[in-house]
Amino acid sequence: MRRDQKSFAFANGRKARKFDDAGKSNLFLAIVPERDVALRAVEIGLDVSQRHGLSKGPRPHELMHVSLNAIGKYADFPEDVVFAVSAAMATVKAAPFEVMFDRVMHFASANAVVLGNAVRSEEMMDLHVQLAKEMWAVGLTFTYNPRFTPHMTLFYDEAPVTEHMLAEPVSWIAREFVLIRSFIGKSECEYIDRWPLLD
Q1: What strands, in cross-sheet order, belong to the sheet with 25-31?
Q2: Domain assignments of the chain as residue spans, ordered by start
Q3: pLDDT tens-digit readout, 128-185
Q4: Which pTM value belongs to this model?
Q5: CATH superfamily placement of domain 19-96+122-148+171-196
Q6: CA distance 183 to 190
Q7: Distance (Å, rounded) from C-alpha 26 to C-alpha 6?
């Protein structure tokens, strides 16, 4: 089951795209915000971009997410991997929890402007670890990252953006996590599967 596994949007952000990424896609597990939260993130991204005179605008609200664990990069749809992940994730047990970001941050190594928090969510870290263990159990690459820093990417830009607090935190209750396939080099993604977080 092991494939060419690479990280996606972890603590130090994602690696720069390469010319040979055309036609490929990333599979990863994530938490997706409610629509109104995603729209607010877009507004924040637009405000940050305009105030700093940046050329890049925020990502579409449909692409807003908080990455949990990478699965891998693939040229084609990996049905066997998706089947293994889906079977493993069905055994995950975690209660709903609050996701909260209170500041705008810049990950210089990834040229990413993100929503983040100085205090790491223990609930999200526990989920990150549990998902990694379940994937490892079915033969997929162990994607635990002890420096995992939950964040939601607003847009990518090389210009530094000074970290600053939001007037009001962005928050919602995470009630599920999803398996996402994002297409490299395109503003497109699709939800492959989803699992509820139950009390």
Answers
A1: 66-74, 25-31, 176-183, 189-196
A2: 19-96+122-148+171-196
A3: 999 999 999 888 876 778 888 999 999 999 888 999 999 999 999 999 999 999 988 7
A4: 0.85
A5: Cyclic phosphodiesterase (3.90.1140.10)
A6: 9
A7: 9
